[in-house]
UniProtKB/TrEMBL annotation:
This is UTP--glucose-1-phosphate uridylyltransferase. It comes from the Bacteria. It catalyses: alpha-D-glucose 1-phosphate + UTP + H(+) = UDP-alpha-D-glucose + diphosphate. GO terms for molecular function: UTP:glucose-1-phosphate uridylyltransferase activity. Its EC number is 2.7.7.9.
Length: 284
Protein backbone atom coordinates (compact mmCIF):
# COMPACT_ATOMS: atom_id res chain seq x y z
CA UNK A 1 0.00 0.00 0.00
CA UNK A 2 1.30 3.49 -0.80
CA UNK A 3 2.42 5.38 2.30
CA UNK A 4 0.06 8.21 1.28
CA UNK A 5 -2.81 5.89 2.06
CA UNK A 6 -1.60 5.30 5.61
CA UNK A 7 -2.20 7.67 8.48
CA UNK A 8 1.40 8.22 9.60
CA UNK A 9 1.42 11.31 11.76
CA UNK A 10 -0.27 12.84 14.77
CA UNK A 11 0.03 16.35 16.13
CA UNK A 12 -0.54 16.74 19.86
CA UNK A 13 -0.60 20.31 21.18
CA UNK A 14 0.33 20.37 24.86
CA UNK A 15 1.69 23.86 25.26
CA UNK A 16 -1.31 25.32 27.11
CA UNK A 17 -1.26 26.70 30.64
CA UNK A 18 -3.63 24.17 32.19
CA UNK A 19 -5.25 26.78 34.43
CA UNK A 20 -8.21 24.53 35.28
CA UNK A 21 -5.84 22.25 37.12
CA UNK A 22 -4.04 24.84 39.19
CA UNK A 23 -2.30 24.77 41.59
CA UNK A 24 -0.82 21.46 40.39
CA UNK A 25 -0.04 22.74 36.88
CA UNK A 26 2.21 25.50 38.26
CA UNK A 27 4.64 22.64 38.84
CA UNK A 28 3.45 19.47 37.06
CA UNK A 29 2.18 19.61 33.45
CA UNK A 30 -1.33 18.13 33.30
CA UNK A 31 -0.36 15.53 30.70
CA UNK A 32 1.80 13.88 33.37
CA UNK A 33 -1.09 13.35 35.76
CA UNK A 34 -1.23 9.61 36.49
CA UNK A 35 -4.17 7.49 35.39
CA UNK A 36 -4.29 3.70 35.75
CA UNK A 37 -0.55 3.44 36.34
CA UNK A 38 0.67 5.73 33.54
CA UNK A 39 0.68 9.44 32.77
CA UNK A 40 -2.26 10.56 30.63
CA UNK A 41 0.16 11.38 27.79
CA UNK A 42 1.36 7.78 27.59
CA UNK A 43 -2.21 6.50 27.20
CA UNK A 44 -2.60 9.03 24.40
CA UNK A 45 0.56 7.93 22.59
CA UNK A 46 -0.38 4.26 22.99
CA UNK A 47 -3.72 4.99 21.35
CA UNK A 48 -1.85 6.54 18.39
CA UNK A 49 0.45 3.52 18.23
CA UNK A 50 -2.54 1.13 18.18
CA UNK A 51 -3.95 3.10 15.24
CA UNK A 52 -0.71 2.55 13.28
CA UNK A 53 0.57 6.14 13.64
CA UNK A 54 4.37 6.23 13.50
CA UNK A 55 5.29 9.83 14.19
CA UNK A 56 4.03 12.17 16.89
CA UNK A 57 4.70 15.88 16.75
CA UNK A 58 4.32 17.33 20.22
CA UNK A 59 3.75 21.08 20.42
CA UNK A 60 5.35 21.91 23.74
CA UNK A 61 6.27 24.84 25.96
CA UNK A 62 9.53 25.56 27.75
CA UNK A 63 8.39 23.86 30.95
CA UNK A 64 7.17 20.51 29.69
CA UNK A 65 9.68 20.07 26.86
CA UNK A 66 12.53 18.66 29.01
CA UNK A 67 10.11 16.31 30.81
CA UNK A 68 8.66 14.94 27.56
CA UNK A 69 12.07 14.52 25.98
CA UNK A 70 13.18 12.54 29.01
CA UNK A 71 10.00 10.45 29.16
CA UNK A 72 9.90 9.53 25.46
CA UNK A 73 13.56 8.58 25.27
CA UNK A 74 14.93 5.05 24.74
CA UNK A 75 17.03 5.52 27.91
CA UNK A 76 13.82 5.64 29.91
CA UNK A 77 12.69 2.25 28.60
CA UNK A 78 16.12 0.78 29.39
CA UNK A 79 16.02 2.20 32.91
CA UNK A 80 12.56 0.69 33.47
CA UNK A 81 13.90 -2.67 32.28
CA UNK A 82 16.62 -2.55 34.92
CA UNK A 83 14.03 -2.24 37.72
CA UNK A 84 12.94 -5.75 38.60
CA UNK A 85 9.40 -5.10 39.87
CA UNK A 86 6.40 -6.42 37.89
CA UNK A 87 4.76 -3.03 37.17
CA UNK A 88 8.11 -1.60 36.04
CA UNK A 89 8.66 -4.54 33.68
CA UNK A 90 5.15 -4.23 32.25
CA UNK A 91 5.61 -0.52 31.66
CA UNK A 92 9.07 -1.11 30.21
CA UNK A 93 7.61 -3.44 27.59
CA UNK A 94 5.11 -0.81 26.43
CA UNK A 95 7.71 1.96 26.48
CA UNK A 96 10.10 -0.21 24.46
CA UNK A 97 7.41 -0.81 21.83
CA UNK A 98 6.71 2.93 21.63
CA UNK A 99 10.43 3.71 21.27
CA UNK A 100 10.95 1.02 18.67
CA UNK A 101 7.98 1.83 16.48
CA UNK A 102 7.47 5.57 16.82
CA UNK A 103 9.34 8.76 16.17
CA UNK A 104 8.84 11.81 18.37
CA UNK A 105 9.37 15.46 17.51
CA UNK A 106 9.17 18.33 19.96
CA UNK A 107 8.24 21.73 18.57
CA UNK A 108 8.15 24.80 20.76
CA UNK A 109 5.17 27.14 20.89
CA UNK A 110 6.77 30.35 22.17
CA UNK A 111 3.61 31.68 23.83
CA UNK A 112 0.29 29.98 24.64
CA UNK A 113 -1.65 31.78 21.91
CA UNK A 114 -4.33 29.14 21.42
CA UNK A 115 -4.69 25.57 20.15
CA UNK A 116 -4.88 26.84 16.53
CA UNK A 117 -1.65 28.79 16.92
CA UNK A 118 -0.06 25.68 18.44
CA UNK A 119 -1.12 23.52 15.45
CA UNK A 120 0.43 26.00 13.02
CA UNK A 121 3.83 25.24 14.56
CA UNK A 122 3.64 21.78 12.94
CA UNK A 123 2.84 23.06 9.46
CA UNK A 124 6.38 22.65 8.11
CA UNK A 125 6.41 18.90 8.87
CA UNK A 126 3.23 18.03 6.98
CA UNK A 127 3.30 17.32 3.26
CA UNK A 128 0.81 18.70 0.74
CA UNK A 129 -2.15 16.36 0.49
CA UNK A 130 -1.15 14.45 3.64
CA UNK A 131 -3.85 13.49 6.13
CA UNK A 132 -3.00 13.53 9.83
CA UNK A 133 -4.56 13.00 13.24
CA UNK A 134 -4.80 15.75 15.85
CA UNK A 135 -5.48 15.10 19.51
CA UNK A 136 -5.68 17.64 22.27
CA UNK A 137 -3.48 16.61 25.17
CA UNK A 138 -6.06 15.98 27.85
CA UNK A 139 -8.74 13.86 26.14
CA UNK A 140 -8.84 10.07 26.05
CA UNK A 141 -11.21 7.67 24.31
CA UNK A 142 -12.06 4.07 25.12
CA UNK A 143 -11.88 1.70 23.33
CA UNK A 144 -8.76 3.36 21.96
CA UNK A 145 -7.07 3.19 18.56
CA UNK A 146 -9.73 1.70 16.29
CA UNK A 147 -11.80 4.88 16.23
CA UNK A 148 -8.85 6.75 14.72
CA UNK A 149 -8.68 4.25 11.86
CA UNK A 150 -12.43 4.57 11.31
CA UNK A 151 -12.21 8.37 11.26
CA UNK A 152 -9.41 8.20 8.72
CA UNK A 153 -11.38 5.87 6.43
CA UNK A 154 -14.32 8.28 6.58
CA UNK A 155 -12.05 11.24 5.76
CA UNK A 156 -10.72 9.44 2.69
CA UNK A 157 -14.12 8.27 1.52
CA UNK A 158 -15.79 11.68 1.78
CA UNK A 159 -12.66 13.78 1.20
CA UNK A 160 -13.68 15.75 4.29
CA UNK A 161 -12.43 16.62 7.75
CA UNK A 162 -13.66 14.37 10.53
CA UNK A 163 -14.34 15.51 14.08
CA UNK A 164 -14.76 12.93 16.83
CA UNK A 165 -17.86 13.54 18.92
CA UNK A 166 -19.66 12.14 21.94
CA UNK A 167 -23.08 12.91 23.42
CA UNK A 168 -22.90 14.89 26.66
CA UNK A 169 -25.59 15.61 29.27
CA UNK A 170 -27.57 18.70 28.14
CA UNK A 171 -26.49 20.75 31.18
CA UNK A 172 -22.82 20.29 30.17
CA UNK A 173 -23.03 21.60 26.60
CA UNK A 174 -21.61 24.96 27.72
CA UNK A 175 -18.22 23.27 28.26
CA UNK A 176 -17.82 22.01 24.65
CA UNK A 177 -17.98 22.92 20.99
CA UNK A 178 -21.42 21.65 19.96
CA UNK A 179 -22.38 20.31 16.53
CA UNK A 180 -25.33 21.61 14.58
CA UNK A 181 -26.10 18.69 12.26
CA UNK A 182 -26.89 19.23 8.57
CA UNK A 183 -27.61 15.67 7.51
CA UNK A 184 -27.37 12.17 8.93
CA UNK A 185 -25.16 9.99 6.74
CA UNK A 186 -25.06 6.85 8.88
CA UNK A 187 -25.61 5.48 12.38
CA UNK A 188 -22.43 7.21 13.60
CA UNK A 189 -21.94 9.88 10.98
CA UNK A 190 -23.35 13.36 10.40
CA UNK A 191 -22.51 16.14 8.01
CA UNK A 192 -21.94 19.26 10.08
CA UNK A 193 -23.74 22.56 9.39
CA UNK A 194 -22.11 24.59 12.16
CA UNK A 195 -20.13 24.38 15.40
CA UNK A 196 -21.37 26.49 18.30
CA UNK A 197 -18.69 27.15 20.90
CA UNK A 198 -19.84 26.54 24.48
CA UNK A 199 -23.54 27.44 24.02
CA UNK A 200 -25.94 27.86 26.91
CA UNK A 201 -28.14 24.72 27.19
CA UNK A 202 -31.27 26.48 25.84
CA UNK A 203 -29.35 27.71 22.77
CA UNK A 204 -27.55 24.48 21.93
CA UNK A 205 -28.49 22.91 18.58
CA UNK A 206 -27.74 19.40 19.96
CA UNK A 207 -25.84 17.65 22.73
CA UNK A 208 -23.24 16.30 20.28
CA UNK A 209 -19.91 17.56 21.57
CA UNK A 210 -16.45 17.80 20.02
CA UNK A 211 -13.97 15.77 22.03
CA UNK A 212 -10.65 17.12 20.78
CA UNK A 213 -9.80 14.48 18.14
CA UNK A 214 -9.66 15.33 14.45
CA UNK A 215 -8.54 14.14 11.02
CA UNK A 216 -7.34 16.99 8.79
CA UNK A 217 -5.20 17.57 5.77
CA UNK A 218 -2.78 20.46 5.23
CA UNK A 219 -5.67 22.73 4.14
CA UNK A 220 -6.42 23.37 7.82
CA UNK A 221 -3.17 25.36 8.12
CA UNK A 222 -4.25 27.79 5.38
CA UNK A 223 -7.49 28.43 7.25
CA UNK A 224 -5.67 28.82 10.58
CA UNK A 225 -3.35 31.39 9.01
CA UNK A 226 -6.41 33.39 7.96
CA UNK A 227 -8.11 33.07 11.37
CA UNK A 228 -8.05 36.31 13.35
CA UNK A 229 -6.96 36.08 17.00
CA UNK A 230 -9.74 36.53 19.55
CA UNK A 231 -9.84 39.25 22.25
CA UNK A 232 -7.21 37.38 24.27
CA UNK A 233 -4.93 37.17 21.23
CA UNK A 234 -5.58 33.41 20.81
CA UNK A 235 -6.07 31.63 17.48
CA UNK A 236 -8.73 28.97 18.02
CA UNK A 237 -9.05 25.79 15.98
CA UNK A 238 -12.83 25.90 16.46
CA UNK A 239 -13.02 29.26 14.66
CA UNK A 240 -11.03 27.94 11.70
CA UNK A 241 -13.43 24.98 11.43
CA UNK A 242 -16.40 27.35 11.63
CA UNK A 243 -14.91 29.49 8.81
CA UNK A 244 -14.45 26.41 6.59
CA UNK A 245 -18.09 25.53 7.19
CA UNK A 246 -19.24 29.03 6.40
CA UNK A 247 -17.29 29.16 3.13
CA UNK A 248 -18.33 25.56 2.31
CA UNK A 249 -14.71 24.90 1.44
CA UNK A 250 -14.65 21.33 2.64
CA UNK A 251 -17.13 18.76 3.89
CA UNK A 252 -16.95 18.45 7.67
CA UNK A 253 -18.21 15.30 9.30
CA UNK A 254 -18.98 14.44 12.90
CA UNK A 255 -18.18 10.88 13.92
CA UNK A 256 -19.82 9.45 17.06
CA UNK A 257 -17.22 7.32 18.87
CA UNK A 258 -18.24 3.83 20.01
CA UNK A 259 -17.10 3.89 23.62
CA UNK A 260 -16.79 7.01 25.71
CA UNK A 261 -14.46 9.93 26.14
CA UNK A 262 -12.65 11.10 29.27
CA UNK A 263 -11.77 14.75 29.75
CA UNK A 264 -8.70 14.71 31.97
CA UNK A 265 -8.19 18.48 31.74
CA UNK A 266 -10.01 19.41 34.93
CA UNK A 267 -10.31 17.94 38.41
CA UNK A 268 -13.88 16.68 37.98
CA UNK A 269 -13.11 14.92 34.70
CA UNK A 270 -9.97 13.38 36.12
CA UNK A 271 -11.91 11.99 39.08
CA UNK A 272 -14.39 10.32 36.70
CA UNK A 273 -11.52 8.91 34.64
CA UNK A 274 -9.84 7.59 37.79
CA UNK A 275 -13.02 5.61 38.56
CA UNK A 276 -14.04 4.47 35.07
CA UNK A 277 -10.97 4.35 32.82
CA UNK A 278 -9.96 0.74 32.17
CA UNK A 279 -6.25 0.25 31.49
CA UNK A 280 -5.58 -1.72 28.29
CA UNK A 281 -4.95 -5.36 29.19
CA UNK A 282 -3.12 -6.38 26.02
CA UNK A 283 0.48 -5.19 25.66
CA UNK A 284 1.10 -2.85 22.74
P1 LIG B 1 -7.23 23.87 26.66
O1 LIG B 1 -8.29 24.65 26.02
O2 LIG B 1 -7.60 22.74 27.52
O3 LIG B 1 -6.28 24.87 27.43
O4 LIG B 1 -6.27 23.37 25.50
P2 LIG B 1 -5.19 24.55 28.52
O5 LIG B 1 -4.26 25.70 28.59
O6 LIG B 1 -4.55 23.22 28.30
O7 LIG B 1 -6.00 24.39 29.87
P3 LIG B 1 -6.91 25.44 30.69
O8 LIG B 1 -8.16 25.64 29.88
O9 LIG B 1 -6.10 26.69 30.91
O10 LIG B 1 -7.16 24.69 31.96
C1 LIG B 1 -6.55 22.22 24.73
C2 LIG B 1 -5.23 21.63 24.29
O11 LIG B 1 -4.51 22.56 23.49
C3 LIG B 1 -3.23 22.81 24.04
C4 LIG B 1 -3.36 22.43 25.50
O12 LIG B 1 -2.10 22.10 26.05
C5 LIG B 1 -4.33 21.26 25.46
O13 LIG B 1 -3.68 20.04 25.17
N1 LIG B 1 -2.88 24.22 23.86
C6 LIG B 1 -3.75 25.19 24.22
C7 LIG B 1 -1.66 24.53 23.30
O14 LIG B 1 -0.84 23.65 22.96
N2 LIG B 1 -1.33 25.85 23.16
C8 LIG B 1 -2.16 26.84 23.53
O15 LIG B 1 -1.81 28.03 23.35
C9 LIG B 1 -3.41 26.51 24.07
Amino acid sequence: MSTRLLLRRAIIPIAGLGTRMLPLTRVVPKEFVPLAGKPVIQHLIEECCRAGIREVIFIVNKNNRPLLEKYFDPQHARYMRSIKSQPAQRNAADLETLMRTMRFRFVLQQKPLGDGNALLEAKRFIGRGEWFFVSLGDLLVQPSGSYIKEMYQIARKHNGYVLATDKVPPHQVNRYGIVEPAKRLGARLLRVRDIIEKPEPHQAPSNIALIGKYIFDAGIFEELERTAPDKKGEVKLAYAIAAILQKRKKTILAYQIRGRHFDCGDWGGLEIAARKFQPATKPL
